[in-house]
Design a protein that fits this description.
Length: 531
């Protein structure tokens, strides 16, 4: 059955056609996002939801989204999506951070020119029939110092454009390396240095706990007298009331804002102040950008629903289409190892330690970690998936650690999962053979070679004669067919294990019969999703 997507905001027909061309059923209802009750009534029918900014994907809406797998936001901002609720529901949230980079950067440059030359006020005055040439004395950008807060995708383009204007560029970004700064032709500085040196300051960071109010009243007071401030990033990065006071006092010579703490901005402390340029969140508002992000979100959602590729996800590690092809069997193995550990563990889990050896150690370990944790968490919550599992684990205080190492043994690569509780540590390891099939290769330090089946039976016992016969006879007498039978032992006469791949789930009465023989220390039916 083909995946089904709802487009509840205005996307281009070309973008909608991408879904159709990829074999996805799509309902195009561009005004539905404005009617939250109508949207809630139908959202349960869909695997994907494609939106812009009008649709509000709230926790309440997501309660009804029982089949939803992905929300795609055509644009960079996802303030209209409750990402925590989506994660708990197991819904991937994607955005399109690259489709409007140039457009947003160009708007910041345009706003810088506008405030430097007081263009909006001069235009309004001239339209009114005045000729106030001497009133609107501006400043050049050439040789001025531009302070860029956030030198990522958009900020990096602004840096490039500013250097083309012969500006000196200083950048504050904790994630910017000295090497990258040198390649960009900018000087990396701390925030205080930027504030005291910059003639213009432009912000290009997301709104997070770390960046909220980054230009606070205290930091604004540190700025160079006559500075001009541009914000085309996110509202809430600047203390707008404090900035208004500094504009009135003349300490700040001008400001240009495209975003505001409260939007739509009907009232604001910056409104109607001299040399303050305001636009209604137009950063991405060009024909090219709107089309680019719409096409991009359609492609991303289609790729995920059809191939499992995860691009530009905000609540899950991204997995490219190329990675998905190579990692598919390893992700499935990671889920199986987690599922084995989860089904074998009855007490609260304190920690999950994951070892990646050989070829798998160079893969996308963040995604593999999610698969392991999802497998473990499914015992407690069958609806958990790679998105929601890390959230569930964090809520339970489970510590997750990862180790990767070069090839250390017979296999080109393997994954080993160790679950730690107050009572014990239990480990299981597996690999992927050349046929692409996951295999268990070690349990509790005992080497085995077991194909993973939908229904299995795991037993532990002392290494004594009669175990194979008892298992085979009991299964046969009760009509359970054995597809595969794997044995392993630590030492002669020591601890031994058996792993049976059977055609149907082993009923509880058969488990009881095996336990009644007193030959087994543990008898545990297991189930795996091998689809």
């Amino acid at each position: 059955m083909a995946p089904k997507v709802l487009v509840s905001d205005k996307l281009s027909e070309t973008a909608v056609q991408i879904f159709r061309d990829r074999g996805i059923d799509v309902d195009f209802m561009p005004d539905l996002g404005k009617d939250k009750d109508a949207l809630a009534a139908v959202i349960g029918q869909y695997d994907g939801l494609a939106i812009r900014s009008a649709t509000k994907a709230t926790a309440k809406l997501l309660e009804n989204a029982d089949n939803l797998k992905v929300i795609g936001r055509a644009g960079i901002g996802t303030d209209n999506v409750d990402k925590e609720a989506a994660s708990k529901k197991g819904v991937i949230v994607m955005n399109t951070p690259f489709g409007n980079m140039i457009t947003t950067a160009e708007h910041a440059i345009a706003m810088m020119f506008a405030v430097a030359r007081q263009i909006p006020e001069a235009s309004e005055s001239t339209h009114a029939g005045k000729w106030e040439k001497s009133k609107f004395m501006g400043v050049e950008l050439t040789n001025k110092t531009l302070g860029v807060i956030g030198a990522g995708n958009i900020g990096g383009i602004v840096c490039d454009r500013a250097r083309g204007l012969k500006m000196k560029v200083v950048a504050y970004d904790p994630f910017l390396s000295e090497e990258k700064a040198d390649k960009m032709g900018v000087e990396k500085v701390e925030l205080d240095a930027l504030l005291t040196r910059a003639d213009f300051i432009t912000l290009h960071v997301p709104f997070t706990d770390a960046t909220a109010n980054i230009l606070s009243a205290e930091n604004l007071a540190k700025t160079k007298k006559g500075v001009r401030i541009i914000n085309c990033a996110r509202g809430g990065l600047v203390d707008e009331e404090a900035l208004a006071e500094l504009l009135k006092s003349g300490h700040v010579a001008g400001a240009a804002f495209d975003v505001f703490k409260e939007e739509p901005a009907k009232e604001n402390a910056l409104f109607n102040l001299p040399n303050v340029v305001c636009t209604p969140h137009l950063g991405a508002a060009t024909t090219e950008a709107q089309e680019n992000v719409a096409l991009q979100v359609a492609e991303q959602m289609s790729n995920y629903l059809l191939t499992g590729a995860v691009e530009n996800a905000l609540n899950m590690p991204s997995v490219t289409a190329e990675e998905a092809k190579v990692m598919g069997p390893w992700i499935k193995l990671a889920e199986h190892l987690g599922a084995f550990s989860g089904q074998m563990t009855d007490e609260p889990i304190k920690a999950i330690n994951i070892l990646y050896d050989g070829v798998v150690s160079d893969m996308n370990l963040a995604a593999l970690n999610c698969a392991v944790v999802a497998g473990i968490m499914k015992k407690a919550n069958p609806d958990v998936n790679m998105v929601s599992a890390p959230v569930v684990a964090k809520e339970r205080g489970i510590k997750i650690s990862t180790t990767n190492q070069d090839k250390s043994g017979t296999f080109d690569g393997y994954i080993k999962v160790t679950v730690v509780t107050d009572k014990r540590e239990r480990s299981v390891a597996g690999t992927v053979f050349s046929d692409g099939k996951p295999r268990f290769i070690q349990i509790k330090g005992i080497n085995i070679d077991a194909e993973v089946g939908a229904n299995m039976l795991y037993t532990t016992n002392e290494d004594v004669p009669g175990i194979i016969g008892t298992l085979g006879q009991t299964m046969g007498e009760n009509g359970v067919n054995i597809a595969n039978f794997t044995l392993g032992r630590a030492d002669v006469g020591g601890e031994a294990i058996a792993l049976l791949y059977v055609d149907a789930q082993v009923p509880a009465p058969i488990v009881d019969k095996l336990c009644a023989t007193d030959m087994f220390r543990q008898v545990k039916p297991l189930a795996f999703d091998v689809a």
